[in-house]
Design goal:
Order of helices and strands: EEEHEEHEHHHEHEHEEHHEE
CATH topology of one domain: Rossmann fold
Helix content: 25-40%
Shape: globular
Structural class: alpha/beta
Distance between the termini: 38 Å
Number of helices: 9
CATH architecture of one domain: 3-Layer(aba) Sandwich
CATH class of one domain: Alpha Beta
Strand content: 25-35%
Number of strands: 12
Strand order of the largest sheet: 6-7-8-3-9-10
Largest sheet: 6 strands, mixed
Length: 278
């Protein structure tokens, strides 16, 4: 495994944070999902949102991405209220990779990555050398250059996920949102994707991801945000945030917290036969 030492991108302390969420409420008619959430994310960080199923993680991500309109509260990206921007300008700030993305039938990898440049196109701006360079750089960054001519549906799950990440990178947004980027991947491919996420943040971009694997979130994120029942119940540096009490609160699970060799990141070890039924 490669070194996972955290190297967040540098940022001007006087500049606004990459993301600032204040008093956010979001949900559906008669069913609140996100309640009074505050979140501040500096530029160049990886933030992992964890919590049980249905706690509001994905709704929070979609609200930041300007895909799910909040009932109240504000979401600022780069100092501007994302909901006061039009869709094209918002797409220049934030890119979202959903949990189960869909691609056109028989699309090649290169064709998929080119879709990431669509927000840059318009009536007065057609495909350019800048777009071609962005696609090439995204393929190189994700190690998918050799797959450019291949059909996406003929690749392995790990290869496809790297290709989807390349599409998101090609959008050239300062903020990238990932909804469970390692779901359905084996351990090797999951580590590969998480290492790539760290490299993206090291280049100065901000990554906010929903992550079910608490140990992976704790190892690769700069900040951990724990949610339950639509609210943030804990937030901070993973090594100081993940403890037995948090695991019990989130998952009704008795567990021991060990420290991983090398970086001392927290590892959750469930206690056999100690599940608490709420």
């Amino acid at each position: 495994m490669t070194d996972t030492t955290r190297t967040p991108g540098t940022h001007d302390e006087a500049a606004p944070p990459a993301i600032e969420v204040r008093a956010l409420h979001a949900g559906y008619p008669g069913r609140p999902v996100v309640e009074n959430v505050d979140l501040t994310v500096p530029a160049g960080q990886v933030v992992a949102i964890v919590g049980p199923n249905g706690c509001g993680k994905s709704t929070l991500l979609r609200t930041i991405a300007r895909l799910h309109q909040p009932g109240s509260g504000t979401v600022r990206v780069g100092g501007d209220d994302i909901w006061q921007l039009n869709r094209r300008r918002a797409a220049h700030r934030v890119a979202l990779l959903p949990q189960s993305p869909r691609a056109p039938e028989a699309v090649t990898v290169a064709g998929l990555v080119r879709y990431g440049r669509h927000p840059q196109q318009g009536l007065l701006r057609q495909w350019s050398r800048e777009d071609e360079n962005a696609v090439r750089e995204a393929l190189e960054a994700t190690g998918t250059t050799g797959l450019a001519a291949e059909r996406l549906d003929r690749l392995s799950g790990g290869q496809r996920q790297r290709c989807w990440l390349a599409m998101v990178l090609a959008q050239h947004t300062p903020v990238i949102l990932l909804d469970e980027p390692t779901s359905a991947l084996d351990l090797g491919h999951a580590v590969e994707v998480m290492e790539l996420v760290r490299q993206v943040a090291g280049s100065g971009r901000t990554v906010v991801m929903v992550q079910h694997d608490l140990a992976a979130a704790a190892r690769y994120a700069d900040t951990l945000v724990a949610m339950k029942d639509g609210r943030v119940v804990a937030q901070g540096v993973p090594a100081q945030t993940v403890d037995e009490a948090l695991v019990k609160e989130l998952y009704a699970l008795d567990a021991d917290i060990l420290r991983a060799p090398g970086d001392a990141s927290p590892v959750v070890v469930p206690r056999a036969g100690r599940v608490t039924v709420s």
